[in-house]
UniProtKB/TrEMBL annotation:
Species: Deinococcus sonorensis
Highest classification ranks of the organism: Bacteria, Thermotogati, Deinococcota, Deinococci, Deinococcales
The protein, known as: NUDIX domain-containing protein
KW tRNA-binding (keyword) present: no
Cofactor(s), by name: Mg(2+)
Family the entry assigns: Belongs to the Nudix hydrolase family.
C-alpha cells in the first residue's frame, strides 16, 4: 500500500460551527463565560458528539449558543489545530443563515453574550487578542471571500 497508517494523523477532537452574516455583512460572534476563557469572542461552535455528524453539530451549536435556528448554506472549510493539551483538533464550519429563533444564548452558563460585529470591530477584537481562536479569523475570511463581502483578509 502506497499510503498506509504511517501517513495518518490522529486528530481525536472534532469541532464544528457556523458563520452567520447579516444584511450589513456583520458576523455573529458569541462571548465565552467559562472560567479561563471569559470575555473571549468566537464563532458559534462546539464539539462534535459521538452520535452526530459535523453539520448536525454546527446547527445544534448555533442554536445553543445564539438561540437562533439556522440553515447551512455552504461548507466553508476544515482546519487542523491544537488543543491546549497539544492534541490535534479538526474544526469545520459552514456559512449559515438564520431561519428563526431569538438572539439570546440558550446555554447561558457557557455563553455570556451573542452579538453582531462589523469587519472593523472583528479586526479590533483580533488586534486586542479578544478572539478565542485563530480559526475564527480563517473561517470569517473564507466567508467574506465566498460572499464577495470584503476583498482583503482580516489583518
Amino acid at each position: 500500500m502506497q499510503y498506509d497508517e504511517r501517513w495518518h494523523l490522529d486528530a481525536p477532537a472534532r469541532a464544528s460551527g457556523v458563520v452567520i452574516l447579516n444584511d450589513r455583512q456583520e458576523v455573529l460572534l458569541v462571548q465565552e463565560r467559562k472560567p479561563g476563557l471569559e470575555g473571549l469572542w468566537h464563532l458559534p461552535s462546539g464539539s462534535v458528539e459521538a452520535d452526530e455528524t459535523a453539520d448536525q453539530t454546527a446547527v445544534r451549536e448555533a442554536h445553543e449558543e445564539t438561540g437562533l435556528q439556522v440553515r447551512l448554506t455552504r461548507f466553508l472549510n476544515a482546519y487542523v489545530g491544537r488543543m491546549p493539551s497539544g492534541a490535534l483538533i479538526v474544526r469545520t464550519a459552514w456559512l449559515a443563515e438564520a431561519t428563526g429563533g431569538t438572539l439570546k444564548p440558550v446555554f447561558d452558563q457557557e455563553i455570556a453574550d451573542a452579538r453582531w460585529f462589523s469587519r472593523a470591530e472583528v479586526e479590533q477584537l483580533s488586534a486586542s487578542r479578544r478572539l478565542r481562536m485563530h480559526h475564527t479569523r480563517l473561517f470569517l475570511e473564507d466567508a467574506y471571500r465566498l460572499t464577495g463581502a470584503a476583498p482583503a483578509p482580516i489583518s
